[in-house]
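Hey, quick one: can you model this chain's 3D structure?
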Amino acid sequence: MLRFTATTEDLLHSRFALSPAFELCGLLRRLSGRDAALPADWAARLAPGFARLRGETHLDAVLALQVSRAGANFVAPPPRGLAQSWADDLAAIRSTPVAVARAEIDAVLRGRAGGDLGVRDPRVRELLESDGVVETVADALDRAWHELLAPDWPQLRAVCERDVVHRVGVIGERGWKEAVEGLQNGLAWQGQHLAVPLRRVYEDVSLAGQGLLLVPSVMVWPGVAAFHEEPWPRALIYRARGTASLWERAAPDPAALAALLGRSRARLLVELGAPASTSQLARSLVMAPGAVGDHLAVLLASGLLARTRSGRSVLYRRTALGDALVGGAAGP
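Sure thing. Here's the predicted structure for all 332 residues.
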């Protein structure tokens, strides 16, 4: 159990952020079998590229640092906000001093092996002990990002952004307690303490007036991940709403919906099982915002969508009629 102690000042300084690097590390752990497996269709699509990268790059050195539910901090630097990009993360990784990287590498590998570095491949061990380890790891991560995660990142980012919009709405309507406890079963706000159910951690940690960093993720497994030591601020990484539907939803027959609505409107209707704004939909589906707006207006007028305002955003979501239409296209 980990307990964060928070004051009113901490709540004022709490904020949300996105972490492309954490998502990439989570994907690599899943593909390598260190965490829960990806859904079968995602694994089948990504596994060949993952295997090829292991042969063409020094990805095995990165994987040596991806122990289950953990890793060296420098490969997943703390994000600054919701606009965080892979370019931001990569620049932070490349700027890591070699001495810092070596200390983290040693701590991770010794912790896993119980006193020995535990790397059987001498080439990997030599690389991890070299002066060029930071650049080599950064190069391997950059290849993995562009070839494994970047094609899906707009969709995954949209899931996380939509989660943040929902959480901010809950904070405004019902307060921080309900918003934070709703991140994951087992989180409990007790007075000034936020209890986080984690294995092998029994510690009380003050937020010290700096607030809590909240990071939605589609890759975190299981439950939540917590950071309470430098270089990260006090942080919780939690599973974003919509992740289950992203992995598990049945795909409707695109030809049937497209024949009825047109391809673009069919894609929008399928995507709007969870609320989203025009800009989020445009990024997720790689469409022009103006075109998205025009299609949303038609779907709204047809009774297939409803819209509500959340802060500065206008969110669209399928109505019961829209759900029935998509459910019928998905089949039994």
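One thing worth noting: Residues 2-17+155-244 form one domain.
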